[in-house]
Amino acid sequence: MNHSEIAKSGYANEQWLADLLSDWRTNSDAKKIIQYFGYDMDSVSDAYGIRLGNTGKVDVVLTVHQGAEKSQVGISCKKFSYSSGKGTGHVSRGIVDNYVFGFGLCYKVRESLMAYAGGYIVEGKKGVFFDHPFFCSKKKKEIIDGFRDNYDLVFTKLFSSQHFPPEYFAVTVENDDDRMLFVTELENVIEYAKGDRRVWFGREKTKHNLALGNVTMYRKGEELQFKMDYRAMIKSLGHRMRIFYINS
Where does the pLDDT of residue 4 fall: very low under 50, low under 70, confident under 90, or very high at 90 and above? Predict the structure, then answer.
């Protein structure tokens, strides 16, 4: 699939989960998921899911009414196909300055990230990888030190948000006509993403990109994009993820 198709597939997955949660009166899977979020179904008078649509880190919000009381659960959603053999997916994407200021990085690191993403022209090139001579040992050390010194903040900003942070993280694994939904608290995902807390250049064979624990930073259209292997995450978290087997 191309990038547009991948995005549409992700939106469809979010809408699927929102619709599933809204069908809680007749769908036993929806009831089990809502129970996992801590609700006593005997006290639930109404519940519905809404896809927010690219407004922040929360993709789907579940609203639950218990008599006169109303509460909400924010969910961050991802998906991959079991048959593809791959599970790498999007974590976050945005302009360089948003990450520089959000992560608390210095102006020297900003200059390097701008050169990497394509905001600056380097030797006639719009965007150069980290194995380019432009990134001398001093510049590389500044980048590594900047991310390492602000490591916990970096991961909080990548996965969460200040105004309405998600409480749960849900990964849909499609297998033919069936779906497996893996759900866990967001804090478990963040801790996995931090990995061994190393910061280095080149998770793959090349040294083109920057690796942060289990997350890799790429460039995309003068922006920065962060990705992670969700298949590996599910395997690593194991029992800390609740599995729901949902038939079509």
Answer: low
Tokens of 246: 């949902």
In CATH, what number is assigned to the domain containing residue 56?
3.40.1350.40
Question: Using CA atoms, how far apart are residues 57 and 91, in angstroms rounded to an integer?
Answer: 9
As given in the structure block, the two tokens for residue 5 are 């198709």
Helix (H) or strand (E) holding 130: none
Q: Are residues 172 and 236 in the same domain?
A: yes
Q: Please provide the average confidence, as pLDDT, over all residues in the chain.
A: 93
Contact 34, 41 (CB under 8 A): yes
Separation CA 248–CA 246 (nearest Å): 7
Cα angle for residues 57, 96, 54 (degrees, 5° grid): 25
| pLDDT computed for residue 3 by the predictor | 61
pLDDT tens-digit profile of 46-60?
999 999 977 689 999
Task: Using alpha carbons, select from 76, 86, 78 the residue that is nearest to residue 232.
Answer: 86
Residues 125 and 180 in one domain: no
Cα-Cα-Cα-Cα dihedral sign, residues 42, 46, 49, 55? negative
Domain count of the fold of the chain:
2
The partner residues of 50 in beta bridges, in order of sequence, read 61
